Amino acid sequence: MTSPNTSIEDVPLNNFHRLLTARSGGGSFVDGYVLSIIGIAMMQITSALNLSEFWQGMIAASALMGVFFGGFIGGWLTDRLGRKKVYFVGPTLFIVCSLAQFWVESAPVLFALRFIIGLAVGIEYPVATSLLVEFLPKKQRGPRLAALTILWFAGAAFAYVVGTSILNVGGDDAWRYALASASVIGLLLLLLRVGTPESARWLLSKGREADAERVIKHVYGQHYSLRDLPEEPDQKKTSFLDLLHSGYGKRLFFVSVFWSCSIIPVFAVYAFAPKVLLALNLKGEWASYGSMIITMLFVVGCVLATRLINTIGRRCMLIHSFLWSGLALLGLATFSHSNEVLVLFLFGAYAVFIGGAQVLQLVYPNELFPTEIRAFAVGIGTSLSRVGAAVGTYLVPVSLQTLGIGNTMYVAAVVTFIGLMAAWAMAPETRSLNLRDAAALSS
């Protein structure tokens, strides 16, 4: 019996796809939780461990440092060992290190544990997105990958609710319970991922045709086979450096530039939103409500982009996202000392319009590279973008003090417009392509 479809990328969304989305999306949720919970508990930690300013900064940045190395390691391991094995590394590290934080008694130990948690986050990006994209129908790739960004914000928001509740009732050691609470979510994620099959595409790239065939029949039904999987160019004997020289280096450059340019202003501005709003003359209730509204609008922007990604396409969305968010930052720079309503409007416009670039951070890297290097490419993009985010976050207080709020916003606008130029010059359109054609250099 032959399959009713010409390709497994044309099949309707089924329960397996939905479950796999939850399994991979759960990783983004946990990432948002573990990276945000430290900020909520930091004041109690500082007092309990008598942290110096040096160690406050190091512990706050430790996970971000770990993400940098985790992206490289996770991408390499995922392409070498397979998606399935590495799929359980992140949750395991989340459980062990989050639980270990409960008994921590010194700044160096807490730094080490947070660094390893950052490694786990960095590992999650390439393995979770690669496995998901290699099973999804092409019409669902964009929206489902984009939804992972929304789940990150959901995890961050949940951390705020849980962390604040624990601190309110837990006494002097409440911070220990807050940090350890991530182990519960990590355990749930680990259990949810039990039974996940290996990627048929990865198995095929390693010459394991029989295993790939079994996975396809298990997931899609007995009437499907390898004949229904669009073949990719044979990359089994090609090194990563050869692939870069053959043309994928340009794509990796594009991914790294647009990802960094979309995340640097967001991390920098969002991390210091109250401070930035204060510099923009928003005080008292304006600053409190402004921070809350802007946080909500970041989520709104990501939700809108997720719904529109298949309608207007990847390239168009990225260009417009950088254009209009850059103009909003330019407006903030020009009218930095204007009235509160205009400032909030421009800040909110930036939060909404940057949503397109935000959700494409996980879409483009997974579509533009073949199975052999897909996870590694995502890992490199993750790592390099976090370097920019760390630098931007570090420089914001310095810039506000030395350059002033107007010039700081001008710098953020310039970074965003660099992303716009990269998008205009290099962003391809992959909306209607299967993974083989999207990853092909001729596309």
From TrEMBL:
The chain crosses the membrane at residues 28-48, 54-74, 86-104, 110-133, 145-162, 174-192, 252-274, 286-305, 317-335, 341-364, 376-396, 408-427. This is MFS transporter, putative metabolite transport protein. It is found in: Membrane. The keyword Transmembrane helix applies. GO terms for cellular component: membrane. PANTHER family: SYNAPTIC VESICLE GLYCOPROTEIN 2. Signal peptide: none annotated.
